[in-house]
């Protein structure tokens, strides 16, 4: 299943097609070459001072017990569907600069940059990938030995698209509902906070 | 100029071609339709609970004085080259959930997700885009009226690629130097912290 975003302005198809689905095929594992491409995409993302404050813990099912412990970190609402994904990846942010140990205020932001790259590579490979904040970060820290100075950010379910009919009713409804975002004027300002950016007007030839 | 990343594993060309250049063409402005596509790409990014905690302040040169004040926020090392970009976009993170005002610990992370989408749409349009942490966030807050509860994250220079020869020697050297990232084993672990993920071994058919 695909659900490309119905954009108001042209956007590259890879960005439009990226989507966070819930229906995964539990029987189809992600090949190692694909996993390597996902992580490579994450690796080449930009970061402040090229710090690369991201770490990724991979639960690919080779170690079935580790995957199960990762699934056990999910909140119930996510576990209901994400347990069917054949693998999980946990993103983790380094909180301090390598060079001097002072706080890196872009650490979590840059993990977001890197994770976007991973999610888009999944789209490119025809994979379903869904990043979740809804997991127990403290439990993940304990379960996997994540040291102080690093913060678990997102649990990412990865796999192939599955049958929507396997979802519980509420999640099936979410899966099939239209995609929603704020309108542009709620997130974009022109030169000062709350000053509107009139995209439409500026697109008329007479306004140039 | 392009400088695609020499990846060790296949990665979609849009992700490979994204790059943070310094040489901008100061005479070529970004058309309004392209700006709309950049912001649309940012708008459709994923976020925790679909909060969309991102805001973007656009300094496109229509208001020359606002653009100049945005440039004045850059640290000298960035200003040296980024002043030549015809526009800047400032990304800002909302720190609290809209629904109840409690802290959203994914706010900055999700701005990173959204910014990655913007940067990749720039790549798709043949634009140069370079996100910078090196700017005075407090000055930006005062200059543009950014309220409490929101944090300036990145100043993003956007424009067309320019002549590398216009850069100062140090920046010209950076522009032409090979791209560097940590190796995969520095950022990827398998099922537990510091447990190596052996991509190469797993790619051999006998290991499947």
Textual characterization of the structure:
Two copies of one chain form a homodimer. Chain A is an alpha+beta fold. In chain A, 34% of the residues lie in helices and 15% in strands. Chain A has one domain (13-169): NADH Oxidase. Chain A has eight helices and five strands; from the N terminus they run H-H-E-H-H-E-H-E-H-E-H-E-H. In chain A, strands 1-2-4-3 form a four-stranded antiparallel sheet, with helices on both faces. The longest helix of chain A has 18 residues, at 107-124. The first copy, chain A, is globular. Residues 201-208 of chain A have low confidence and may be disordered. The interface between A and B is large, with 85 and 85 residues.
Kindly list the characteristics that best describe this protein.
homodimer, about 210 residues, alpha+beta, NADH Oxidase, four-stranded antiparallel sheet, globular, disordered C terminus
């Amino acid at each position: 299943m695909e659900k490309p975003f119905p954009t108001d302005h042209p956007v590259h198809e890879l960005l439009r097609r990226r989507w966070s689905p819930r229906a995964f095929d539990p029987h189809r594992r992600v090949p190692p070459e694909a996993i390597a491409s996902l992580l490579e995409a994450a690796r080449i993302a930009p970061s402040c001072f090229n710090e690369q404050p991201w770490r990724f813990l991979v639960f690919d099912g080779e170690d079935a017990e580790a995957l199960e412990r990762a699934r056990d970190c999910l909140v119930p609402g996510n576990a209901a569907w994400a347990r069917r994904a054949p693998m999980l990846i946990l993103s983790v942010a380094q909180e301090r600069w390598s060079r001097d140990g002072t706080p890196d205020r872009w650490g979590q932001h840059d993990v977001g940059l890197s994770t976007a790259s991973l999610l888009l590579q999944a789209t490119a490979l025809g994979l379903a990938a869904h990043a979740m904040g809804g997991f127990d970060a403290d439990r993940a820290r304990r379960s996997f030995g994540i040291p102080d100075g690093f913060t678990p950010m997102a649990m990412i379910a990865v796999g192939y698209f599955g049958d929507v009919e396997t979802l519980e009713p509420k999640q099936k409804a979410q899966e099939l509902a239209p995609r929603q975002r704020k309108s542009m004027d709620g997130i974009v300002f022109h030169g000062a906070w709350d000053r509107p950016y009139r995209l439409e007007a500026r697109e008329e030839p007479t306004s140039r």
